Amino acid sequence: MPPFKETETPHTPDSERVRRAMAAGVIVGTWSWDVARDRLHIDESLAHALGLDPALARGPVSPAQVTAAIHPDDQPGLEAAVAAAIRDGGRYVHQYRARGDDGQYRWLEAIGRVELDADGRAVAFPGVLLDIDERRRLEAERDQAQTLLRSFVEAMPGVVYAKDRQGRLLIGNRGTTELIGRPPDAYVGRTDAELLADPAQAAAVMVADARVMASGQAETLEEEVSFPDGRRATWLSTKAPLRDADGTVVGLVGTSLDITERKAAEQRHRETEERYRLAARATNDAIWDWRIVDGHVIWNEALAILFGHALAETSAQWWLDHIHPDDRARVDADIHAVIEGSGTTAWYGEYRFRRADGSYAAVLDRGTVLRDGDGRPVRMIGAMFDLTERKQAEAALAEREERLRLATDAGDMGFWDVDLVNDLLIWPPRTKAMFGISAHVPVSMRDFYEGLHPDDREATSAAFAAAIDPLQRALYDVEYRTVGKEDGIVRWVAAKGRGLFEAGACVRVVGVVIDITARKAAQARLQELNERLEGRVAEEVAERLKVEEALRQSQKMEAVGQLTGGIAHDFNNMLAAVIGPLDLLAARMGDDDARARRYVDMAIDGARRAALLTQRLLAFSRQQPLQPVALDANRLVAGMSDLLVHSLGSSVRLETVLGAGLWWTHADANQLENVILNLAVNARDAMPGGGRLTVETANCHLDHRYAAEQVGVPEGQYVMIAVTDTGTGMPPEVIAKAFDPFFTTKQVGRGTGLGLSQVYGFVKQSAGHVKIYSELGQGTTVKVYLPRLLRPPVPATGDAAAPLPLPLGDAGEVVLVVDDEPSVREFSRHALTELGYRVLEADGAEAALRLLDAHPEVTLLFTDVVMPEVNGRQLADRARERRPDLKVLFTTGYTRNAVVHNGVLDPGVHLIGKPFTVEDLAQRVRAVLDETPVR
After folding, report:
1. Do 662 and 634 form a contact (C-beta atoms < 8 A)?
2. 416: closest CA among 513, 520, 519?
3. pLDDT, tens only, 829-860
4. Cα separation of 632 and 720, whole Å?
5. Does residue 322 carry a pLDDT above 80?
6. CA atoms within 13 A on the CB side of 292
7. What is the CA radius of gyration of the chain?
8. Most buried of the four, 524, 557, 639, 758, by CB within 10 Å?
């Protein structure tokens, strides 16, 4: 039935609806079938629609008359549909084709209703017939279009789909079904979040879809997807907005292609390219890739490394231009012959290639032509190897071979080659000469064996047999004698060789031979020399032991010197606190009390002898402050004659032998006099019955050999002073200990044991050398060597100055006394006060600096050198930073400090040694204060 029109109401009669539908052309006829009586009535419209006689509309017709117009193919279906409707009752709808008045079949749709009675039997079957031919045509066209679309979608590779604005799937192809893993009816109308098992994948897809629909722009993107079976893939998706007729975006359409394999192939391609790149970088060759069509060439990094061209791409002409002009035409012709030919694809050549710095490298170049399917050359890939080093090596090898040949010629070396397979012996003329055979005479192995000395034949044959034995393969290395076949001369030769093996058998033995006759003779002579050398070695060992003993003695003396120096320092400080006050006491007493004066003089004498003892200790330890001057030893010895005569006594006769033209030396005159006096006194004591003492001077040169025998004695020119006596002499064990401190052979109370120790210390401190020569019953000689002064001084003129009275100071001159020893500081303060000076005192550097700042009138700093924390020299330096014109006088009982170096006072330094008397102090203070400052 047709739908209601606006003018219809629900109460409009059915007949009226039918009439209006027929007027509109929707219903083409009606029927009414009285099933119970089998009476079928049709109207004229239906008769026309079925191509029947309109007259049939005036009376009942049989169903067979009506169905005769139905298309034969549709009649079975019609009959079945009618039978089912009569059986079941209710609404009836069926479509079929019927032939109209024009003889053409048209599609019709019959709509009716079967009414049943109370017993369920059909009693009435009315209905209408609708013309649906146009609708069926449109539906057919639609179905065809849908089929075509469905076939197109199904035929497209990958996934094809459409979605609405909410992301619900409207359609999907086979790829969509495979991806989701469900049939279409299970996923159409549902979103990706509901369908996909991977939530992250679903969220990413929906975000991309929403972005496309929001922007209205198509996108192409890669998406990672997971299949239900666990496979993962990469899809290349193209998504575009879906619009309605008005252009409004109502969804989207998309296609996705599986590019997993393509991505893998691209990755493999990249890996292949990376391997090629790494291989090109790893090789030392310059790899090139030449595109022949346009001459473009790509190089690896070796082009820059090997040849200095920092280029990655060039033209083929650039490469050709860098070939040496003399090689260019040849290389160009050779490579084009391979490219343009068809017989081979490989090319190689050697030529000279210009580096970036303009020099040429020798290269070996190899390349392979790649052709297309038609055989046309498209690319050529190759590698250029730098032969420069190899060429240089070959040249060096050739040079070495030439040198080897010349060396073997010069060394009289011969070669030999034994061919065991063909029983041949190859000897050059030099080898034949070693067996006494002329150069032109042929030789064989028989000549070799017959030429061996009978005593060496067995060992030589055994060595050769071991060399050719496959199990041993020993090195043939023998020395033997030959007996000349032609001249009969016996010669010694040394032969070395090695066997060459093939298939487990020795086929050749090759080696060299050299004439060692002269060497054997030299060895014999050397054996004789070795026997002599053993005796010399024993002598050298004994001499070395002697030197080592001397070194140990020197080290012992040095250690003892350190000890005695420290002891002397403490003694000097104590004696300074004794001698000084006694001196002051004697001055105050005068001659009023003779007995007390005698006691004081006795104390002063004892203290001075103790001071002399400490001076000897300091002299031995080489720590006494020396004041060396240019010295004429002859004049000094001559001036001591009277002193020596009085010291020796009448039983000893003195002789002096002064060398002519004696060199000058540089030493402390007073200390040298003490040395000579000590030696003279020791000599006197060694001659208790009297004798002769000789003092001799001479120039002396200590050569390298002598200096090597004496530890610490440099070779050179010296002034020698020898003191010789005719006394009892000394045994070697006494000589070895003579310079040791406190060692003496005298009776108890007759000697301190420091006399020779003082001599030793002074000489060593003066860079000299002292040596004792003595035999029991033959006397003793002590020789003192002092270094020569190469520049003698200019002789001074004028008379010596007369002695001055004791100098005094005045109250305007202020002396700052600094000493950490309270007793010495106290004596210094009293002595200087007695001498007329104003005195300030301090026990250390910090207190002294504060007094200097508070008393700018201080004119002299009188300071001890050895003090804790800040020594006297450091104090003087800091004081002169404040007072550049301040004068300084140092005092010390020990010279291993900052004002004395190598036993000699530093220039411009004034020093008074401890202990000192009031007279010594007065003289030194006055001298320092009266000195004109030097700027």
Report:
1. yes
2. 513
3. 888 888 889 999 999 999 999 999 999 999 99
4. 12
5. yes
6. 18
7. 68
8. 758
Other CB atoms within 10 Å distance of the CB of residue 397: 11
Q: What is the pLDDT averaged over residues 42-69? A: 85
Using the structure block, give the residue that is written with the tokens 């009978």: 454
Cα separations in angstroms, 493 against 466, 520, 739 = 19, 9, 64
Distances in Å between the Cα of 680 and the Cα atoms of 755, 769, 786 are 10, 18, 18
Assess contact for 450 and 436: CB atoms under 8 A: no
- Token pair 């000549």 is found at 447
Q: Which residue has the higher pLDDT, 874 or 283?
A: 874
Average pLDDT over residues 309-318: 93
C-alpha distances out from residue 88 to 84, 91, 113, Å: 6, 9, 10
The DSSP output letter for 57 is G
CB contact at 8 A, 299 and 314: yes
State pLDDT tens for residues 603-650.
776 666 666 555 555 544 444 556 688 889 999 998 888 778 877 888
**Short-list 801, 807, 805, CA closest to 926:** 807
The tally of CA atoms less than 13 A away on the side-chain side of residue 802 is 1
Question: What angle separates helix 872-882 from helix 845-854, to the nearest 10 degrees?
Answer: 20
Q: Are strands 887-892 and 911-913 parallel, antiparallel or unpaired?
A: parallel
Q: Using alpha carbons, list the distances in angstroms from residue 711 to 69, 735, 736, 757.
A: 153, 16, 14, 18
Would you say 99 and 67 are in contact if contact means Cβ atoms under 8 Å apart?
A: no
Q: So what's the pLDDT on residue 872?
A: 87
663: pLDDT confidence band, cut at 50, 70 and 90?
Answer: very high
Cβ–Cβ under 8 Å, residues 167 and 208: no
Contact status, residue 30 vs residue 126, Cβ threshold 8 Å: yes
Q: Could you tell me the maximum CA-CA distance found in the chain, to the nearest angstrom?
A: 205
Between the two ends of the chain, the Cα-to-Cα distance in Å is 144
Which distant-in-sequence residues (6+ apart) come within 8 Å of 669 by Cβ? 629, 631, 636
Neighbouring CB atoms inside 10 A of 291's CB total: 13
Q: Using 50, 70 and 90 to split pLDDT, how confident is the model at 479? A: very high
Among 66, 200, 187, residue whose Cα is nearest residue 129:
66
Q: Which residues contact 820 (CB under 8 A, 6 or more apart)?
A: 843, 844, 864, 867, 868
User: What's the CA gap between 569 and 755, in Å, rounded?
Assistant: 19
State the Cα–Cα distance between residues 817 and 822, nearest whole angstrom: 11
State how far the alpha carbon of 733 is from the alpha carbons of 152, 174, 678, 745, in Å.
Answer: 129, 122, 21, 12
**Which pLDDT tens digit goes with each residue over 90-144?**
999 999 999 888 888 989 999 999 999 988 899 999 999 998 888 888 877 777 7
Is the Cβ–Cβ distance between 30 and 110 less than 8 Å? Answer: no
Q: Give all strands of the β-sheet with 652-657 in edge-to-edge order.
A: 652-657, 691-702, 716-725, 779-787, 769-775
